[in-house]
Hints:
Blueprint: H1 9-37, H2 40-64, H3 69-95, H4 102-122, H5 125-136
Helix pairs in contact: 1-2, 1-4, 2-3, 3-4
Amino acid sequence: MKLPKPYGFNLLTRIVFVHAAMLLAVLASTLVHALERGTVVAAAFAAVGLVIACAGCAAMVGVARQRALRALVLLRWLLWLAVAKVLLGLLLSRWSGEAVTAHALLPILLNGAVLVGLAIYWSRPVHARYLASLVKA
């Protein structure tokens, strides 16, 4: 029996894509600036963020278009990995002595807040049940 789409499925799918697009632009710019300044840690974090964002887009396509349960599992892992990366980046910037200015801190915290919300939403078991019902139907 095919279950109805979970509440907010289409909206949150679009939010993942928009967030990833904005993140790709910001991280590409951060990577270029970090390489120009010669800060290896910032460049590494930006590169890892780019990889996670690209993989997240691919996983979201798998969930939204192909209705793949494996893509949902991958999306969940990637979202929580991105949350951990943001938190680790904040801690490392604090410990390394690099000054994180107020105008740089706000986007980092907003990105973290969006990522936590997306990770919580896509971790709900209703999504796995919905995608599994599509396979059976």
